[in-house]
Amino acid sequence: MIGAAVNLVRGVHVGFVLAREGALALVDPSELPAHLRFVLRIGRSLERPGLGDGAARLSAAMTRLGPSYVKFGQFLATRPDIVGMRAASDLERLQDRVPPFPQETAVRVVEAAFGKPLAQIFVTFSAPIAAASIAQVHKAVVQEPDGTQRTLAVKVMRPGVRERFQRDLEVMRFMARVVHALSPQAERLRPRDVVEILARSVMMEMDFRLEAAAASELAQNTADDAGFRVPKPQWELTARDVLSSEWIDGTRLHSAADLVAAGHDPQAIGREVIQSFLRQAIRDGFFHADMHQGNLFVDADGRLVAVDFGIMGRLGPHERRFLAEILLGFIMRDYRRVAKVHFEAGYVPAHHSVEDFAQAIRAIGEPIHQRRADEISMAKVLTLLFDITALFDMSTRTELVMLQKTMVVVEGVARSLDPRLDMWTTAEPVVRSWITHNLGPVGRLQSGAEAVRVLSDVVGDIPDLAVRLKRVLVRLDESGTGDARRLERFARNERLRAVWSTLALWAIAIGALGLAFRGF
Fold first, then answer.
1. 11 contacts: CB under 8 Å, gap ≥ 6
2. Among 173, 204, 235, which residue terminates a domain?
3. Fewer CB atoms < 10 Å away: N or C end of the chain?
4. Tens digits of per-residue pLDDT, 480-511?
């Protein structure tokens, strides 16, 4: 009871800040029941004067509420399917920058993480060089056993941040329940699910061992990519509250002029930004989902280097094929193929017409081919595509929404370096390479081999199933049920059926291999 009262007071404070900063202007009153429209009018009366057009109303409110809400706002910026494009665009303004915590506190966190004095861990340990709501970064030097020294970036968890986030998450859970109680129609926005997704995301970010694992996986995936690399995590100097990784000396991607001054080609870097992201998403199914200018460098060798792996995205094989075929379909103006991919993936219900859907997609694709290549936004095409699919009852796919939002950011970075960048020509080699490898003869052979492996697993389980069935029969016989003979006949028939099933499975496997080899 006391906890609910505390959450109510904190929730009222959140509501007051949202109202005061004008964030309630983003709510469409036409979608609310009468009693909530009345509440909305009261809230709108609390707005501060002089807010203008309110272009940054929601982001300003989140900033005022503190780090937990800044993180919540950044998360919602990746979910326009929940908050709408207008609110998502506003939330993209959020900057996770807060004053650093004292050097002495950072030292205590590091010493507690490794159980020894700082002098025994690092030769030098600088003052913080960057700070955010969850952690801050220091520059440190370690000495190797052979006497050589290496420079590291050391990310240190902000003390008390977990407790603060847990407290604020409880308030958000309380508010989500209140919203559901007051307006069951709002459940289509899944407020309670959204809070739980945020909670899981934040908890992942608050264990630096998981971030180091994400960096390691991305580094392994991109090891053979000549133009892209990932700083190596230093596992022996990484713990839940401390993340140590290779220090990057490079030029940030904030300015094309800075890159030119450092001897780099901004146009080539812009192409590498797009192609690196597409390789991660389409080829590997694991991509950096926060590739803004602050997280990207160019090293002395001209390679693109990404940092900060707290927010990552994943795509399964079906989603990767979906993305690759959609992009290639738009490049080749094969709109029926784009439509069929949606139906094959099960994203659009089968009761709709492929031809009607292809017509709707043509309405997106044809206008882009009437414009110069440098005027075409790949991210905008995907945004329009998702808008049209809503008319055909396409269910929201969280992973595709995150992909689309990341592509918006990546495209913005690339175009800031080369305003005339042809997105489609840049993307085509990556997309076509994946399709050739995965849907051509090699891909068919791999699919056939995978089918054989799965079928072999099924066949291998049959003896074990037979043994289990026999045990059941023995127990039934011992129990004196009188049905043992009938069950024995049933088991004999099932064994015969299993033999024929085995032969059929191997016939299917051989057929799958035959289809695979027909592509050669």
1. 171, 174, 175, 178
2. 204
3. N
4. 555 556 656 665 665 555 555 555 555 555 55
